[in-house]
Amino acid sequence: MSAPARRRRRTSPLWEPGLIPVPGQLLDWRDNRHFDGWQDLACVLCEQPTPMRSHFGEPVHKTCAENWISANPTEARLGRFASDIQPKRARDNDHA
Q1: 78-96 pLDDT, tens per residue?
Q2: Where are the alpha helices (DSSP H) in 4-76?
Q3: In sequence order, which residues have a C-beta less than 8 Å from that of residue 32 and are 6 or more positions away?
Q4: By the 8 A CB rule, do 7 and 65 touch?
Q5: Which of 32, 49, 62, 86 sits CB 3.0–4.6 Å from 40 for a disulfide?
């Protein structure tokens, strides 16, 4: 049998990512597009099944992505894993 084929990472995100967290901080993945309700695929980092997807569509556990950011802070700045864009809250609007 041959080794499993490696997936190539997309060059553009499926939807707009937000900020890249500082190493040690948590990713904010509240958007339901991170969850694939149809199938679990092998995490690109630990190879265990996961329904989670990155902004690039990579199957990855959120904790694996957070650990990867901490272990690879320089490469993490390229945006492989990022938090979601947070909508502006009404109370942040300071004009009358």
Answers
A1: 999 999 998 776 665 665 5
A2: 62-71, 73-76
A3: none
A4: no
A5: 49
Q: Which amino acid is at 31?
A: D
Predicted local confidence at residue 13, as pLDDT: 85
Q: Residue 31 contacts by C-beta under 8 Å, 6 or more apart in sequence?
A: 15, 84
How far apart are the C-alpha atoms of 8 and 86, rounded to whole Å?
28
Note the pTM of the prediction, 2 decimals.
0.79
User: Encoding tokens for residue 89?
Assistant: 């809250």
- Strand ranges (E), 1-96: 41-42, 49-50
Q: How far apart are CA 20 and CA 84, in angstroms?
A: 9
Q: What would the pLDDT profile of 5-55 be if each residue is shown by its tens digit?
A: 455 566 788 888 899 999 999 999 999 999 999 999 999 999 999 999 999
Q: Name the token pair of 25.
A: 């901080």
The answer to whether the CB of 83 falls within 8 A of the CB of 29 is yes
